[in-house]
Amino acid sequence: MSSSMATKLLLLLCFVICRLISTVGSTMEMVDPLEKVELVRLGLESQLKLSIDPTDMEAASLDFGGMVRARPFAVLHPTSADDVARMVRAVYESTHGLTVSAKGHGHSINGQAQTDNGVVIEMSNGFLKSANDDKAMRPSRPPSSVVLGVGGSEDSKYVDVWGGELWIELLTSTLEYGLAPKSWTDYLYLSVGGTLSNAGISGQAFHHGPQISNVYELDVVTGKGELLTCSEEQNSELFHSVLGGLGQFGIITRARIALEPAPQRVRWIRVLYSNFSAFTNDQEYLISLHGRPTSEKFDYLEGFVIVDEGLINNWRSSFFSPRNPVKITSLSSNGSVLYCLEITKNYDEYTADTVDQEVEALLKKLSFIPASVFTTDLPYVYFLDRVHKAELKLRSKGLWDVPHPWLNLFVPKSKIDEFDQGVFKGILGNKTSGPILIYPMNKNKWDDRSSVVTIDEEVFYLVALLRSALDSGDDTQTLEYLIDQNRRILDFCRDAGIGVKQYLPNYNTQEEWMDHFGDKWDLFLHRKIQFDPKRILAPGQRIFPASLPSSSPATSSSSSSSFS
Ligand code: FAD
């Protein structure tokens, strides 16, 4: 064991001694560090299952990005919200500057769910593991984890769900009742708490808003270890802080999510454009229909840039229906960039007769390349879970567990043409190393009281560069090249005054974070002081410098200057 590891373990031990191990008490002082750790572990087993198992520690040190690695002192697999609260309270009351990082499914890119001086709480895997190991250890969690709201109109149906639940698990449970959440992410193997800490967006956001606009109530463990219920009406400041709050204000242990009747099937359509303005005009027209009756709008709208047809660029979107034998390459002149609009219409047995006409009426208003309509039809759940299919394909070729230097940007509608010229046609040229999503959303579907940062325009775009770094011998696919290219894109946006904001933001200095939050920084800071005064939570976001050890637990809460 390295000396830094031993030091970390010692630190962990010190605070745990104070809090948790009444059985060993003062005899701790007389044993050596390793034995102490063992005693800690044993002592904790009766109260909090802290683990220093190498497999747990390794899993807590990794994420989907594969670029950042921080090893915690220990890992907690909570069996209830009370476990989470006791853990945070113990750290809050300790004087060693320790931190706590909630980890959902670890699908962050830049170590956002990691810590190197504290405990990782495994909200997703950990729960499943302990639940399987010992079903009796489910005290505070609802037996099935899904509780449907009873009574009320269709609109008020909801599900209460554990914060570490994956969206795929949630979908499976609600479908048993013929219901489903309204707003999604493209990929469902993400945790509820993890996506609500960012926003949670997909092609439904233009009319339902992001996932954070579809939550009625939360249970949250604040940075002081208090377990509070919050909503628009109750503890509303905490509620709005936590949504899009990057894990800074509390750990979500329960979320009450809005549901709607689940459609049975999906008509999934793709059309192509060679002209960028025609593509974005059509996208903006279609999202402007959000207030119309269901029959007069699509249910989902996204889009992507087609640079070439290789697997690594198109893994998210590998359908171009065999019923449509058009070769995409035949539609692009001189290998130029093509844009694909992706839309869906949901239907069931009652609307199956009219879906064709409704789709046709909407497509008639669009200006895509005439021969380029690709259509497929599939069950709703297959559509929602489409990226998992692509994941399995990539996994089978060893292309999933590679570094992912992703860059996600919100771009103002007024600057999207300049972005196209400068980035898609400029910096990227014909090399992308991964899918590039581009779709607009309506700002009025976002609640400005949440902590998330968007764009000050009625319509803004998500541009997602979902790149994979490969060791293929091609210099333009290396991690270094792609990271540098991300930097060049951000530099271009800054120099050209594009006014982008990062989604799933990643910065290293507090100045950059202040710039990211802009007018919202003061509020964000105030919320941090109010709900996590000792800067315990989610240190992997690197927004606030670590709290130094102190003799008094509450000293850092009194003044904002301690954050700067
Ligand atoms: P983690 O990576 O485990 O955690 C993320 C952050 O949230 C950390 O700071 C962590 O401390 C905090 N956190 C985790 N759980 C909690 C909790 N219970 N309470 C409070 N804070 C918590 N995003 C979209 O919006 N739309 C998409 O379509 C989309 N598709 C994706 C596809 C893939 C393949 C991947 C890898 C990511 C995608 N994302 C998408 C991004 C994803 O939403 C975020 O990375 C999200 O944080 C991942 O959830 P997670 O459960 O893995 O969170």
Topology:
Elements: H1 3-20, H2 33-45, E1 50-51, H3 54-60, E2 74-76, H4 81-93, E3 99-103, E4 118-122, H5 125-133, E5 147-148, E6 158-162, H6 167-175, E7 179-181, H7 192-196, H8 205-208, E8 215-222, E9 227-231, H9 236-242, E10 250-261, E11 265-273, H10 276-287, E12 300-306, H11 311-314, H12 328-331, E13 338-347, H13 355-363, E14 374-379, H14 380-384, H15 386-396, E15 407-412, H16 416-427, E16 436-442, E17 459-465, H17 479-495, E18 501-502, H18 510-517, H19 521-531
Parallel strand pairs: 2-4, 3-4
Antiparallel strand pairs: 1-2, 5-6, 6-10, 7-10, 8-9, 8-10, 11-13, 11-14, 12-13, 12-16, 15-17, 15-18, 16-17
Bound molecules: flavin-adenine dinucleotide.
The site of flavin-adenine dinucleotide has 37 residues, from β3, α7 and β10.
Structural class: alpha+beta
Q: For the CA atoms, what is the radius of gyration?
A: 24 Å
Mean pLDDT across every amino acid position: 85
Q: What proportion strand?
A: 15-25%
Q: Number of helix segments?
A: 19
General form: globular
- Given as residue ranges, the uncertain stretches (5+ residues, pLDDT < 50) are 14-36, 126-144, 551-564
In total, how many beta strands? 18
Helix content: 25-40%
Q: What's the end-to-end separation, in Å?
A: 35 Å
Bound molecules: flavin-adenine dinucleotide
Strands of the biggest beta sheet: in what spatial order? Answer: 14-11-13-12-16-17-15-18
The biggest beta sheet is recorded as:
8 strands, antiparallel
